[in-house]
Amino acid sequence: MTNGTVAMGRPTLEQVAQHAGVSRATVSRVVNGSPTVAEPIRAAVERAISELGYVPNQAARSLVTQRTDSFALILPEWTTRVFSDDQLFPGVIRGVGQEMEAADKQLVLMLAGSAASHDRIERYALARHVDGVLIASMHGADPLPGTLARMGVPVVCGGRPLGRARVPYVDVDNVNGARQAVRHLLDTGRSRIATIAGPQDMVAGIDRLTGYREELRDSDRRSIVAVGDFTRDSGAVAMKQLLQDDPQLDAVFVASDLMANGAIRVLREQGRRVPDDVAVVGFDDIELARYTEPALTTIRQPIDGLGREMARQLLRLAGGETIPDQVVLPTELVVRASA
Predict the structure, then answer these.
(1) Where in the chain are the domains?
(2) pLDDT at 7 (0 to 100)
(3) DSSP states along 11-32
């Protein structure tokens, strides 16, 4: 160091200490957030860091703090599904990313569409490359959340985990949302109400079918069910099946907007007017719902809000706070032309 300036190259901890007139150990404590440093000394060190442009070595810092300041969002899906046009995954990722950015944390996105990738991600998380894990879009009784939680990795799930894993989760009120959809169809005079349910290895598919059946049972109507996989094509196939099973149906509750879009296409092809002959209600309220022809009545779920709340809960848990076992976000009926 000469005349208060640093030689070219990345500033070191020792140079910061000399510039601030303190020991290397004191600079290290300030960098690692120790509360034991007096405020005037902390201010001097922070001023030296700013003036020299010092950037802490994250690897070395992690050895001291035992933290990486990184968190993983794991989606047990294939890349083609995550980056399709259903807009759900981008919304969740956006919400998680906003909260992590606000907390000055790094987000790592990991896709686990195969058994091999699932095992690789489990090893990565257990090696403590991240400070905590979010898992969304789970299929079946996925053992990953329970395995990580038992090994001490902070975990929060997006959606209620199936099986015995006792892991905190954030979800939307799928059952009540489905009941709202069917109640709306009943209130508008529809009597033969079918449903295109989501996959029955996912909690959203299970709970939305449960809500549909509960509302119909309370009104003494019978269930008419076909099952899709939340994609547009599966909605089209399921709609054809429903029309074969009950040609007189006059309404359909569809467990995702993408499937509803496929269903409306089939209804149009088979000469059924929407909503005159068959009313349609979807679920999600993705952007596509506003541009479907006719515009889609649907159940709005807070997609970005789900991601933000998942991230908030994980940051609290990783920080040593106690968090609730479950957070359930409300849904809302949005009435448009299709019903």
Answers:
(1) 13-65, 70-171+304-329, 174-302
(2) 45
(3) --HHHHHHHHTS-HHHHHHHHT
Give the Cα separation of 83 and 79 in Å (integer): 6
Confidence (pLDDT) at 57 = 59
pLDDT digits (tens, 9 = 90+) for 148-162: 898 899 999 999 998
SS3 21: coil
Residue 56 vs residue 111, higher pLDDT = 111
H or E stretch covering 274: none
Q: What is the DSSP letter of 163?
A: S
Within the chain, how many helices (H) and strands (E) appear? 14, 12
User: Any idea which fold 13-65 has?
Assistant: 434 Repressor (Amino-terminal Domain) (1.10.260)
Sheet containing strand 106-111, strands side by side: 106-111, 70-75, 133-136, 155-158, 169-172, 326-329
- The pTM of the full predicted model, rounded to 2 decimals, is 0.79
Mean pLDDT of the chain: 88
Domain 70-171+304-329 has CATH 3.40.109.10: no
The C-alpha atoms of residue 243 and residue 148 are separated, in whole angstroms, by: 45
Q: What tokens does 194 get?
A: 């079918």
Query: Selecting from 3.40.50.2300, 3.40.50.720, 3.30.710.10, 3.30.360.10, what CATH number does the domain 174-302 have?
Result: 3.40.50.2300
For 106-127, what is each residue's pLDDT tens digit? 999 988 777 787 788 888 888 8
